[in-house]
Write a structure and sequence with these properties.
This protein is mainly α. Helix content is about 80%, strand content about 0%. The chain has one domain.
């Protein structure tokens, strides 16, 4: 097992946070507002607190991804670079999105919002994989 690239962990979390801000703002902010209304989910907490907590949780996810890449090793990743995307996207597709959808089913949140959020998490996790790829895992 190689060392965890801590710089890549932090940068990947920042990149995923940026993806999330754009996704839930410019790209799908209006659709979220239509689904949730002006007093919808997340409006009861100060925006800076939501941003800080989101970043901390993304650091946790990014740390796990960084550990996975360290476990695979730089030599393997050098000859199989698709593993960056397969592993990071696989985490989103096999764990994060299904867990989110189970929660959304219980809360009776619309399929439209579930699909928007699933896309956001898939793109965010793939962007973390890309960050690790660019920064050398």
């Amino acid at each position: 097992m190689g060392p965890v690239n801590w710089l890549a962990v932090l940068v990947a979390a920042l990149v995923a946070l940026g993806v999330s801000l754009v996704w839930n703002g410019r790209l799908f902010g209006r659709a979220r507002l239509e689904e949730l209304g002006p007093g919808g989910l997340g409006q009861r907490v100060a925006p800076w607190r939501t941003l800080a907590l989101t970043f901390l949780l993304l650091v946790l996810s990014s740390t796990m991804i960084g550990h996975m890449f360290a476990r695979v090793g730089g030599a393997t990743l050098a000859v199989k670079p698709w593993l960056y995307f397969m592993m990071s996207g696989g985490l989103a597709g096999a764990f994060v999105i299904p867990a989110m959808w189970i929660n959304y089913l219980n809360l009776r949140i619309s399929l439209r919002l579930a699909l928007i959020d699933a896309g956001q998490w898939l793109v965010a996790y793939l962007s973390m994989g890309l960050t690790f790829f660019l920064l050398g895992g």
